[in-house]
Structures are given as structure tokens and as C-alpha cells.
């Protein structure tokens, strides 16, 4: 995992990672979803009209890989989803060091789903 990984992407002098439960997409031990026993992942689920955030938490079952990730779908507004993420990371004493990274990822994901505003018309104003 350190020097060679199928998820590792080297670009512009950076070592990035495309792991499923890597919040910052950095190739480092802190954010790695494979190397840590406890990991958190956020992704958008659903189509663009009705999107929701899926919170993934790594569980303890080592013998059943299919059950090793617990997914929770959060469909509320931004503040309530942020509160649920904070409670999942800090309140449950799971990974309090990933709270800021998870909230930053949530901000980026919700901004990417929002419809973009159209540019205002640039025309001549009428005279009064």
C-alpha cells in the first residue's frame, strides 16, 4: 500500500488515491480506507433531482467482506446531515480526527449537485 497500489495515482508531483473510503483522496495513512481499521466514506447516491448523501462506516466483521461496511443514507438538509456526520465521527468516538475532512467533503459534494445559476443577460438597458 505504501509505494504500490492499484488505487494510487501520481499526478503533478502529488500522490493521490482513488480508494472508496478515502475522504481527501490523498495517498496517506491517515485518510486511507484500506489501511485503517476505522474509516469513513461519503458519496452521493441517487440521481441529480433527488440526491442524498451515503455515509459509509467500516465495521468490524473481517470474515464477511460484504458486511464489513455499514452504509447510512442521509436525506435531510445540509445542516442536519452535517450534524449527523459530526455525531458519527465525534459522538461515537469513532474517528474524531476525520470530522473536518468529512464536513469539507460534504460541502464539496452538495455544491457539485446543486444546479448552476444561469448567467444574467448582458444587454442594453432601456432608457427611461
What features would you describe in this structure?
The chain has 128 residues and is α+β, with helices and mostly antiparallel strands. It has helices spanning 78-91, 99-113; strands spanning 8-11, 14-17, 40-45, 52-58, 69-74. The strands form 2 sheets. It has a 3-stranded antiparallel β-sheet, with helices on one face. The longest helix has 15 residues, at 99-113. The model has no long low-confidence stretch (mean pLDDT 84).
Structural class: alpha+beta
Number of helices: 2
How far apart the termini lie comes to 69 Å
Q: Uncertain segments of ≥5 residues (pLDDT<50)?
A: none
Which short descriptors sum up this protein?
23% helix; three-stranded antiparallel beta sheet; alpha+beta; 128 residues; 2 helices
Write a brief structural summary.
Helix content is 23%, strand content 21%. By secondary structure, it is of the alpha+beta class. Strands 3-4-5 form a 3-stranded antiparallel beta sheet, covered by helices on one side. The chain has a two-stranded antiparallel ribbon with strand order 1-2.
List the helices and strands and how they pair.
Elements: E1 8-11, E2 14-17, E3 40-45, E4 52-58, E5 69-74, H1 78-91, H2 99-113
Antiparallel strand pairs: 1-2, 3-4, 4-5
Helix pairs in contact: 1-2
